[in-house]
Specification:
two-stranded parallel ribbon; Rossmann fold; single chain; about 160 residues
């Protein structure tokens, strides 16, 4: 999971996916998150983000880190939160194989599957950054993430 600073959206998404796949053995899912910026490296999640995911029943321990080109070799799937993250991650990809691992998280949301990331509607695939906004903004972010993770898990169980 990748967002900008790695303290709001991507750790929230990692909390959801890691909790929902904790008992999976095939495929075994290892979840990590990172940010395209280095502002918060080593810090925990934003307090409101963590509060919202914990209140929803998810447990997750987080320390922010920056996305690195080496992450392409360590992961099978890279899920970004918005177009800035998408572009920043793609710039680090050295091959088509690496670029083909990068998707908008919300492209797995069943209601958004028909939207192509290169279309004029690409912004509908973005998870807006709730950084320092209201609790309600974080709750809406969690709702978007949960719908996308639901679709991702359906996709993974079909394979």
């Amino acid at each position: 999971m990748v967002c900008m600073g790695n303290i709001c959206r991507s750790p929230m998404a990692a909390a959801v996916l890691s909790n929902r796949t904790a008992g999976w053995t095939s495929p075994r899912i290892n979840v990590d998150s990172s940010g395209t910026g280095a502002w918060h490296v080593g810090q925990g999640a934003h307090p409101t983000s963590q509060q919202v995911w914990q209140r929803a029943g998810y447990e997750y321990i987080h320390a922010a880190r920056q996305f690195q080109a080496s992450d392409f070799f360590l992961t099978d799937l890279i899920l970004v939160m918005d177009s800035n993250n998408f572009q920043n991650v793609i710039k680090l990809a050295e091959s088509d194989e690496s670029r083909n691992k990068v998707f908008y998280l919300r492209s797995f949301d069943e209601s958004l599957k028909s939207i192509h990331p290169d279309s004029a509607d690409f912004s509908k695939l973005e998870v807006p950054d709730p950084y320092n906004q209201s609790v309600e903004a974080y709750e809406e972010t969690l709702s978007m993430i949960e719908r996308a993770v639901d679709g991702l898990l359906q996709e993974l169980t079909r394979q």
